[in-house]
Amino acid sequence: MSMLPSAATTPVRAVDRAGADPDDRGRRVLWIVRHYPVTAVVLAPYALLIVPLAVLHANPDLAFVMRLLGAALLGTVAVETVALALRRPGWRLGAGGVNRSYRHVYLVARIVAVVAVVASVIRAQAGHGTIFTQLTSDVAVSPVARVTSLAAGWSYLAFALLLASFLGGHAPRRRVLCWAGFLVAGQVVTVAVTGITSPAFGYLSFLAGAGAVCGLLRAREVVVVGVALLVAWPTLFTLRNEVRVEGGVSVAADVTAGDRLRLDLQIAEAARHDAPVDVGQPGITEFARYGLVPRVLDPDRPALSTGALINQYLGGAATSAYSFLALGNLYFLEGWWGVPLYYAGWAAVAVLLLRARGAPGPFRLTLFCFVLAGPLLWSSSHPDSMIGFLQHTVAALPVLLLLRRTRVRGRHAAEPRPRQQPGTPAPLCLTGG
Fold first, then answer.
1. Which of 29, 229, 343, 433 could form a disulfide with 75 if both were Cys (CB 3.0 to 4.6 A apart)?
2. What is the pLDDT of residues 334-381, one digit of tens each?
3. The whole model's pTM is what?
4. Quick one: which of 72, 27, 52, 163 has its CA closest to 382?
5. Measuring CA to CA, which residue among 82, 124, 71 is closest to residue 328?
């Protein structure tokens, strides 16, 4: 029996004016995202928002911003190009098989998601991470805040486990997206309590990047979500200001929602200083104390914020923080050479997590997501983001170790996965061939 479709059933693809097949363009974008994932994640916010606004408003420091971006991409492209030559054949077949053996990963992902959202809201209600405690330089000292801090980073862990569930065929794309929406809703509720929007936007950026790299989200869906966020931003900005005013915090009336989107100005401010600058940023001791020891075991340690140290260096108060964004902070604290070296190093970590010794399971996927959510996130604060990576890893270890103990090995792990729904992208993370 012939397996070839008849002429009547062969789909006719739309061709644009230039004669290019839209599907071909989509495949080219997908190829770039999967073979150069770190480069794509680093480049995306600049290509979609920061650089266009700088060009539109004729930012005189655009050349500085582009040099910084070029230095970062130099590090990521070099590492990922070398990794292409070292890729293993058949990688794409291994992602489903490895994650299929973790039979309970979808159940664990849902439990972690619920705990993450509840803990985040409770922690915010207890005063942790709010604009009000930031302005008073207080650290939330209630037992509730300390206990819920043990789940710090679980919103990223939950999404990583959802990705593993999708790749392993334990959950269809639609259900995974619904649970991702639940995690986003938790971020919105937390913003309404804390009065700080940057963590929520950082989480959405992480979710879009990790979802695109791992095949959960299509490139055009990421663009649509980005446009929707830009449209919703004025409303979110107004909500943020109302929360702050109700809490007794003054809000600058002359700063509009559009002004807050001029992120290129934040980065360009770093060009006014002779880098590198020592502001007393965390060292090895602080990395160990804050990154590896949960606050519940060290309740008396002061809050850690390099942004506050930078603000003091610029002449501001310790109760406020300033950031040049991830690229600007890195240049400001480490100098020009620090930028490509930093991004090359973390690109190497990401490539090893995804390609070393075959396809990644939930453990390595989680660490990869922590890399995207911390050191490689465009809005993160260096070097605090690296400490956050350690904190999230420590907090996730009990869940990951429990999940590993429940892994099914042998022939039962190789049973066929559920049939994929039509129209869904291939559930493959960073194909290597």
1. 343
2. 999 999 999 999 999 999 998 877 778 899 999 999 999 999 999 888
3. 0.85
4. 72
5. 71
